[in-house]
Structures are given as structure tokens and as C-alpha cells.
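Data deposition worksheet. Section B asks for the primary sequence of the deposited chain exactly as it was used as input, without tags or linkers unless they were present during the calculation. Section C holds the resulting structure in C-alpha cell form. Section D is free text for depositor observations; keep each observation to a single sentence. Incomplete worksheets are returned to the depositor.
Section A, Depositor: J.P.
Section B:
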Amino acid sequence: MSVERHIAGMLQQIARQLDVVEIAPQGSTPKAAALAHVAERYGYTYGMAYRTGFKNSLVQVRMYRDPQPDARVREAASITAHPQAGNGGTVPGLEQGSLKPLPEAVAAVAVLKDLITFDVMAQYVADRSQKVKGYLACVVLTVILLIDRSPAEAVASGGAVALLFTVAFKVGANRRGKIAQRLTDAGFLAVRDEQGSQRFLRPGQQLPGHTNPFAA
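Section C:
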């Protein structure tokens, strides 16, 4: 699907003033972040992101209509400044016919990229149960290898896989930690959603369906 069709499809949803807008699945986080920025200029705010598609190769972003008064100001300004958006004309924050951010939008898109990446990585950063399952798989592998290999070879193979798991868990946790720090430095607040997952919100923003997302 072309850039213009992605933009047009999103703007058609926005034009209907839907409470929730689904950005068409993108092949990379930067592309998803660029489209999310356009949606924000039309009065929406970032909601969540997750992996979808074949082998989870695509990034799906969900935007929510922003209830804040300044969101309507952003929306009106974008409609006035970009009357042909969705029909081949310019869109706020991006080069025409491209998902490349304009210089004035680079910082905002970078923040959205961090928000999306943080949420997407939640599917892969291991919690305690995932670690238990991973290391249990290593034990099972070692037992299977004992059937036709020497004990030393079996233990060495199982240990090598366990080491790979450990490194992967550590790298993922470190990368997500750095993103969390950047979002905190940018003024976002860490909260927990209904599933106990960590999320980041702008001051005053609420998680969809939550009256007070900042309650202890």
C-alpha cells in the first residue's frame, strides 16, 4: 500500500470523528510513528501499539480522540493549513508524498517512536514466567540430547542455549530501560494499566477507560 493510501485511509477515519483510529499496519516503527504524529495533529493522541501480521512483522498503532480543548485547536489548524490532505496534498509534519518528518516534527516523531517501541517490546521482554519457560525448555533440550549424546555434550548444548536466553533477556531489558528513561526525561509519567503492564502517559493524559490512571 502506498504512502498516500495509508494517509488517506487514516484521515478518512479521522474525518468521521471516530473515538478510535487504527493506523494501517506498518513495516517499521519509524513509519508508524510518522503516521501517529499526523493523527496527533488532527486531534488524536497515542493509545497503544502491538505487533501483528505474518510472524508479527508489522506494527499496529491505535490512536484515541484527545478530549483536551487544545486538541480541537490542533485539528482546526491542520484542516485549514492542509485542505488537500488525503488527496495528494500536504499533511502536517511530513514531507509531501513521504513518511519522512519535516525538521520541525523530528523531535515529536522520535518521542512517538519511543512510545511505540516501548509498548511493542512488552511482548518480548521476559517476565518471570517467560524466563521460567525458557530455562525449562533448556532442561528439556538437555534431557533429549542425553538420549543419543554423551552427558558432557548434552549439558554443554543445553547450557549454551540457556546462555543465549540470558543474554537476550538482558539486552531486551536494558534497551527498554533506556527508552523508559528517555520518556521520563521528556516529561512522561510511568503508570500501570489493568494488566499490570508499564505504560507512559503525558501529564494529565488518561489511559482509555480509566478515570484516574495515576492512582496508586
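Section D:
Residues 211-216 have pLDDT under 50 and may be disordered.
The longest strand covers residues 44-52.
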